[in-house]
UniProtKB/TrEMBL annotation:
The protein, known as: Serine/threonine protein kinase
Organism this protein belongs to: Amaricoccus solimangrovi
Keywords: ATP-binding, Kinase, Nucleotide-binding, Serine/threonine-protein kinase, Transferase
Signal peptide: none
InterPro entries: Kinase-like_dom_sf, Prot_kinase_dom, Protein_kinase_ATP_BS, Tyr_kinase_AS
Lineage: Bacteria, Pseudomonadati, Pseudomonadota, Alphaproteobacteria, Rhodobacterales
Domain of life: Bacteria
Length: 700
């Protein structure tokens, strides 16, 4: 965050809408500011984009804010989530969105360039976000390096944001607002100069920002309107960029929209086919090193730096007759890290005080202090220094990780408690021990647990699983979720009430981390089948479901289909081993279930007899495009979306033998299938090797 100014729209500590407490300023621009805030009800950290009062009354700017708020319906980890658009009592319009803790891609640009392999990863992730965005008929129009945040510094966790109001003066980029257009000259597509923007305009911006980030240079768009328009008609200079990044940039940023990839989904397919640059060509131009990424400081130790001034250097004093030297300030430090390491140092007035401190430290940490850890010194600020410090150590002992710093009468404690109850107990005990000794307490304690794993998260939410398994997204870059990280739980539930309870349970289990409970609410009939899956979901990683459209070579990464669409459904699994059997069904919004595989016209279930193998992947098509189905109508099933809207669930079972002993009708009720499946699972007639599910969301 940056320093507050007298003219800021909001002030630190101000509460908006009885909910959002302002914590500080993240950025400023000519039209408004962006703030970090905390939801006082849920504790969730959010970002607020606020317009200055003059612009809050301008219809053009309000339209831009409304355009962003419409993105709240987009469900993609690669796109920032919007929660609300509101107006303060003073008339300032503001947006509420996720606070993404990470590194702006512009940091790589400003550091002098980036690794082309990492940029390919960023391109893929941003393309995933654009697929979800464009599926909602929303064109971003302002893609640039400062509008992409790498969550935790990880290029594979890039998130598209839109901080255009706060960033419009950064790195020389000029934000254009008006006539339905918003973008930056340096990255905007040629057609945007005429006020026209389409999904392929975002693809151009992606190519331009990849090139700028690789080179470490903001593009020179020209110094006058005429020069800008002329420069946009020329291809970008990609000299020195290694393949395949070079070819990708050239195709994305072709001045002619018709020659760009037709969609973000097509870009995804192209990136998957291209792979990454070879090691010998994987360095930025002119020998510029890629910036270091993925580093994360531990919160408790960072907080200690903020809380306590650096201690004066300590010279060790060997005991000798006479009065010990005076220490100014009189200091003491003790800590225990999360991995069990412990350290002790500081001033004590005599051997008795040193013994009391050493015994408390050993009891709290299980470690024996070094013989010269403590220094005899006079000048202690309270009479019974040894007992006072020992009491502070004892108060800190229940924390999973802690650091105690005492300087004269100031006693500072930072650490991580195992849970909220433990945090409250330590805070009270520490305050009592400090004030009782005449010291001033300063405690900053986070709520843990310190080591939080996906298994712990799933155990906490499992009692609420009423519609299939609830799965915790894996941590980024390790086996545990760091303090402050986002913890997401996905799956499906049977009601909005369960979704609310899930959010509360998740928030209560993860401590000072960001909770994101995003289950899909399915109707009770579908949950009748999905609710049987948790016990058999361990092998889901071996199967996936691919979706597409009949009549066009395009993947459907969102699962959303409109009236008249012709869904294509593929089951994807490793080519080897080719053992086991498949059973594939769709439980739809009407309460009916369709057995896609096997059927009377397609009775085979053995994996080895199904589908085609290419590139180590076996593809088994269970729903075809209409043209394919007409070529073999007896065995190929095809359907179109009608006006029955809602969510349906594709379920794929891989078993050691056919799931059922006999073929089932193509159409039956979900209830009848669920009853028979329950009997199969209870009797143990088959072994479930893996399960995969995929939502189909049909909309008008």
């Amino acid at each position: 965050m940056i320093e507050p100014l007298p003219g800021d729209i909001f002030r630190k500590g101000q509460v908006l809408n009885n909910t959002y407490e302002i914590e500080g300023v993240l950025g400023r621009g000519g039209t408004g500011e962006v703030y970090r805030a905390r939801n006082q009800i849920t504790g969730r950290v959010v970002a607020l984009k606020a317009l200055n009062r003059a612009f809050s009354a301008n219809d053009a700017y309000i339209e831009l804010m409304k355009r962003e708020e419409e993105m709240r319906a987009i469900a993609s980890d690669a796109v920032v989530r919007y929660t609300d658009c509101s107006r303060s009592a003073e008339g300032h319009v503001y947006l509420v969105m996720d606070y993404v803790d990470g590194t702006p891609l512009s940091d790589w640009l400003e550091a002098g360039g980036a690794d082309p392999g990492d940029l390919m990863t960023v391109a893929r992730r941003v393309s995933e976000g654009l697929v979800a965005t464009h599926a909602r008929n929303i064109v971003h129009r302002d893609l640039s390096p400062d509008n992409i945040i790498l969550r935790g510094g990880d290029p594979g966790q890039a998130v598209i944001i839109d901080f255009g109001i706060a960033k419009d003066a950064n790195a020389g980029a000029r934000t254009i607002v008006g006539d339905g257009f918003a973008g930056k000259y340096e990255y905007a597509a040629p057609e945007q100069m005429n006020g026209h923007a389409e999904p392929r305009s975002d693809l151009y911006a992606l190519g331009a920002l990849l090139l700028a980030t690789f080179r470490g240079q903001v593009p020179d768009a020209g110094g006058s309107p005429g020069a800008i328009v002329a420069s946009k008609q020329r291809p970008l200079d990609t000299g020195g960029v290694p393949e395949p990044l070079r070819g990708l940039i050239e195709r994305l940023a072709d001045p002619d929209p018709a020659r760009r990839p037709p969609s973000a989904a097509a870009v995804l397919s192209e990136i998957d086919a291209l792979g990454k640059p070879s090691p010998e060509r994987g360095k930025p131009e002119r020998g510029k090193p890629a910036p270091e990424k993925g580093r994360r400081s531990r919160w408790p130790l960072a907080a200690a730096v903020l809380l306590v001034a650096a201690l004066a250097g300590l010279g060790w004093w060997l005991a000798r007759p006479g009065v010990p030297p005076v220490a100014r300030p009189y200091v003491f430090t003790a800590e225990r890290t999360g991995d069990g390491a412990a350290r002790l140092s500081g001033d004590v007035p005599d051997a008795a005080a040193g013994k009391a401190v050493a015994e408390a430290f050993a009891a709290a940490t299980g470690a024996t202090p070094e013989p010269d850890a403590l220094t005899l010194a006079s000048g202690q600020p309270v009479a019974d220094w040894g007992a006072a410090v020992a009491a502070l150590i004892t108060a800190a002992a229940p924390l999973e990780e802690w650091r105690l710093d005492v300087s004269d009468r100031d006693a500072g404690l930072v650490g991580v408690a195992p849970d909220a109850t433990g945090r409250a107990a330590v805070e009270a005990g520490f305050a009592s021990a400090a004030t009782g000794a005449g010291l001033v307490p300063h405690a900053r304690i986070a709520t843990g647990p310190l080591r939080l794993t996906p298994a712990m998260v799933e155990a906490a939410v499992k009692p609420l699983a009423d519609c299939g398994p609830l799965i915790a997204a894996p941590p980024s870059g390790g086996d545990v979720y760091p303090m402050g990280a986002e913890v997401a739980v996905r799956g499906s539930v049977a009601s909005d009430e369960t979704r609310r309870k899930l959010g509360a349970a998740l928030a209560g289990a993860i401590g000072d981390r960001v909770a994101r409970a995003e289950p899909v609410v399915l109707n009770p009939a579908i949950c009748g089948v999905a609710g049987l899956l948790p016990a058999v979901s361990a092998g889901t990683g071996s199967i996936s479901v691919g979706l597409g459209f009949g009549g066009r070579d395009e993947k459907n990464l969102t699962g959303i289909y409109a009236t008249g669409d012709n869904p294509v459904i593929d089951v994807l699994l490793p080519a080897e081993p080719g053992d086991g059997h498949l059973w594939v069904v769709i439980a739809d919004v009407t309460g009916n279930l369709y057995n896609l595989l096997p059927r009377l016209s397609q009775p085979a279930t053995a994996v080895a007899d199904l589908g085609t193998v290419a590139g180590g992947v076996r593809r088994v098509r269970v729903a075809y495009g209409e043209a394919e189905a007409r070529a073999d109508p007896a065995s190929r099933l095809s359907f179109r979306v009608d006006d029955t809207f809602g969510k349906s669930l594709v379920i794929v079972f891989r078993t050691d033998r056919p799931l059922f002993d006999t073929l089932r009708p193509t159409t039956e009720t979900i209830a009848s299938f669920a009853a028979d499946l329950d009997a199969v699972l209870r009797e143990g007639r088959v072994t479930i090797l893996a399960v995969a599910t995929q939502l189909l969301d049909t909309r008008e």
